[in-house]
Write a structure and sequence with these properties.
Blueprint: H1 6-17, E1 37-43, H2 50-69, E2 78-84, H3 91-101, E3 107-109, H4 114-127, E4 131-133, H5 140-143, E5 148-150, H6 155-169, E6 174-180, H7 184-199, E7 203-210, H8 218-226, E8 231-233, H9 238-250, E9 257-259, H10 266-272, E10 280-283, H11 292-304, H12 312-331, H13 336-344, E11 357-358, E12 364-365, E13 368-374, E14 377-384
Parallel strand pairs: 1-2, 1-3, 3-4, 4-5, 6-7, 6-8, 8-9, 9-10
Antiparallel strand pairs: 10-13, 11-12, 13-14
Length: 386
């Protein structure tokens, strides 16, 4: 190799001093400061529960954009890598494997539906990649392992809330329960409601079943009508809940129908119309709450998403991304074990859905809200503390 002339050496040094080349050290490896921090999201962006996934995604995007506008995390911007599971069984497992192995995400956000979170959780646990569900309430989700977290309350609490609400507020003593046997969420919530309602002296006169995707509930509702109950607990998702309400009214069942946070979607009213008037469900937050945290969030969400009012799924997704960013900051690292430890230490985090502390089982301790449908809109009824 020939020697460089003095002029060539000076020219090369000039290039280095101008920053046009890296002459003093090799290029930074992937994942070092200056690169983005990749965060994975798996959600039902299309398909049967798309209302959940779209709402959750909008909350996540808003949080990521705000964090990046404020300088990012650890001096790096967050990059959200989103995948659609199409609301289909089996898709979440495939997606999460890809997000971990190919996209090299440092953490996962998702899912809303407990069944889909239960598909992903073992994969994240085995890979030692933290996963935060915004709103899967089945206890089994976090029981998968110590890398699995959630920022919502769980079904044992939600079941107790609605059992107490039925007894104390609706003043009913005899109910029927209509459960989706193909949904881990529905089966779990039905169990906790029936246990508490019976413990408080109420009577479960009849338990009827259906499967996700069913459209005809007349046989079950006819049996429920014959049982002479005072109310019907429907711990399912918004599509079936709306159809059940319509068919119940068609059969002359003019009694309260009520459910859990799976009812939380504008489509409940779009599908159910007048039939869902006077129905109730438990959820995680209400945009009618006048706390500064909620009013500020609602304003920002409306500005970002063309005037749309954020529901509980949007608020919880926003909170899940915020809690993750806070944990990465406190960990001072994106290493899985360090982020996991920081998440486990989350205490009194000022979240939109309420101050959030993650307990020893990695579940959030927080209040629930009961909402009714009145005048074609969701209206706050009451807050129920843990």
């Amino acid at each position: 190799m020939h020697k460089l002339s003095r002029r060539s050496v000076l020219a090369l040094l000039a290039v280095c001093s101008l920053g046009l080349g890296s002459c003093s050290k090799p290029a930074a490896p992937a994942g070092s400061a200056g690169d983005t921090i990749k965060v994975g999201e798996f959600a039902s962006l299309t398909g049967k529960e798309a209302a959940f996934g779209q709402s959750s995604h909008k909350g996540t995007v808003l949080a990521i954009e705000e964090l990046n506008a404020a300088g990012g995390v650890l001096g790096r911007k967050l990059e959200l890598v989103s995948e659609d599971n199409q609301s289909k069984p089996g898709e979440s497992a495939t997606i999460v494997k890809k997000l971990i192995s190919r996209d090299k995400v440092v953490a996962l956000l998702g899912e809303v539906a407990s069944s889909r979170s239960l598909e992903a959780a073992p994969i994240c646990q085995a890979a030692r990649i933290p996963m935060i569900s915004p709103s899967s309430t089945n206890p089994a989700v976090t029981e998968t392992g110590d890398y699995i977290f959630r920022v919502c309350f769980i079904d044992p609490f939600q079941g107790v809330v609605m059992a107490k609400f039925a007894k104390d507020t609706l003043k009913i003593r005899k109910v029927a329960v209509l459960t989706s046997v193909s949904s881990a969420y529905s089966v779990g919530l039905a169990k906790y409601f029936t246990e508490r309602f019976a413990k408080d002296g109420g009577t479960i006169a009849l338990e009827q079943k259906y499967s996700e995707g069913d459209k005809d509930f007349k046989a079950q509702l006819t049996a429920i009508k014959a049982a002479g109950v005072e109310g019907i607990f429907v711990p399912g998702y918004y599509t079936e809940a709306a159809l059940i309400c319509k068919q119940a009214r068609d059969l002359g069942l003019n009694i309260p129908l009520f459910g859990g946070d799976g009812w939380e979607a504008p489509q409940l009213i779009e599908i159910g119309g007048a039939a869902v008037e006077g129905c109730y469900y438990s959820t995680h937050y209400s945009p009618e709450n006048q706390s500064p945290a909620v009013t500020n969030f609602v304003q920002k969400f409306k500005q970002r998403w063309n005037g749309e009012t954020p529901d509980a799924m949007a608020a919880l997704a926003y909170d899940s991304a915020s809690v993750l960013a806070d944990a990465i900051k406190r960990a001072g690292s994106t290493e899985g074990a360090k982020v996991r430890a920081a998440l486990a230490a989350t205490k009194d985090f000022a979240a939109v859905s309420g101050n959030t502390t993650l307990d020893a089982q990695r579940n959030a301790t927080k209040s629930a809200v009961v909402v009714t449908i009145k005048g074609g809109a969701f209206k706050f009824v009451e807050t129920v503390a843990p």
